[in-house]
Amino acid sequence: MSLLEVDDLHVRFPTETGMVEAVRGVSFSLGRERLGVVGESGSGKTITGRAILGLVRKPGQVRARRMLFDGIDLARLDERGMRRLRGQRMAMIMQDPKYSLNPVMRIGRQLTEGLRLRERMSPAEARRRALDALEAVKIRDPERVYDAYPHELSGGMGQRVMIAMMLIPGPDLLIADEPTSALDVTVQAEVLKILDDLVRERGMGLIFISHDLKLVSRFCDRVLVMYRGKVVEEIAADRLDQARHPYTRGLLNCLPRIGGPRGHLPVLERDPAWEEA
After folding, report:
1. 195, 197, 193, 153: which is closest to 177 by C-alpha?
2. Domain boundaries, the chain
3. Which pLDDT score is estimated for 104?
């Protein structure tokens, strides 16, 4: 049974030059698996994730035939209903911890705020839960990090804190928006291992948003390829190099290859027909 079903999702924004459709008729399903969403910047990946969580604010407009999360139609929930799900059962790791963590609040306060307000948890119990979450994401000195400010942490440490923050309530659905884009290769591998363990051990559904096709092909189970707000191809991750859509082929051909020919990388030739596919 699917954990999430999205059917004909549209997201639009009014501008001075007219209405801009950021997401155009996106449909997909998600089980207890790792679903990759790839495409260029501006292809609608992040907006799709934010729309699922009800985080597209006015004047943005969201509509869908249906968005079923564990049998609940998100498209018909009011804000109060979304708040009961968001954070508790659905969560999103934002792209860059520098912009997601409050710079004037210690990490511990940011980790425990939701527990104290939403679950009426005592300060001591909330602290214990937060420290356990920091340990779960392989932070060696959770006590020090708990008392630190965001600027005292490295990029990799900040990203782990963001993952811990989202995982404290034990969500069934996690949307990770380029969680490794600012990390070096070693830290990137550690963060991916954390996410992989969570999917396997907790049975969580993961939507992994990225522009790194090679990374997604190794880490995910399935891949959605987005272009100009539409899904143009869906394929098993381990067969991504066999993709047939010319846009996906173009993205793959633009990747540099160790030992490959030297010279300019090819430029993606776009076809207006892709927008209507």
Report:
1. 195
2. 4-89+211-276
3. 93
- Both tokens of 77, joined, read 């929930």
Residue type, 28: F
Cα(153)–Cα(105) distance, rounded to whole angstroms? 13
Tell me which residue has tokens 């190099």.
241
What CA–CA distance (Å, rounded) separates 31 from 5? 9
Over its C-alpha atoms, the chain yields an Rg (Å, rounded) of: 19
The SS3 of residue 210 is strand
Q: CA-CA distance, 245 to 233, in Å (whole number)?
A: 7
Q: Which of 34, 58, 60 is nearest to 48 (CA)?
A: 60
Q: What is the pLDDT of residue 182?
A: 63
Taking a C-beta distance cutoff of 8 angstroms, is the pair 199, 34 a contact? Answer: yes
Please classify residue 104 by burial: count the beta carbons closer than 10 Å to its beta carbon, then call 0-12 exposed, 13-18 middle and 19+ buried.
exposed
What is this structure's pTM? 0.88
Q: How far apart are CA 105 and CA 260, in angstroms?
A: 48
State the architecture of 4-89+211-276 in CATH terms. 3-Layer(aba) Sandwich (3.40)
Low-confidence ranges of the chain (pLDDT < 70): 1, 97-98, 182, 260, 265, 276-277
**Backbone φ/ψ region at 203: left (φ over 0), alpha (ψ -120 to 50), beta:** left
Supply angle C-alpha 14, 47, 39, rounded to 5: 115
- Supply the pLDDT for residue 223: 96
Q: What is the pLDDT of residue 116?
A: 80
Separation of alpha carbons 275 and 6, rounded Å: 20
Q: Residue 25's pLDDT is what?
A: 94
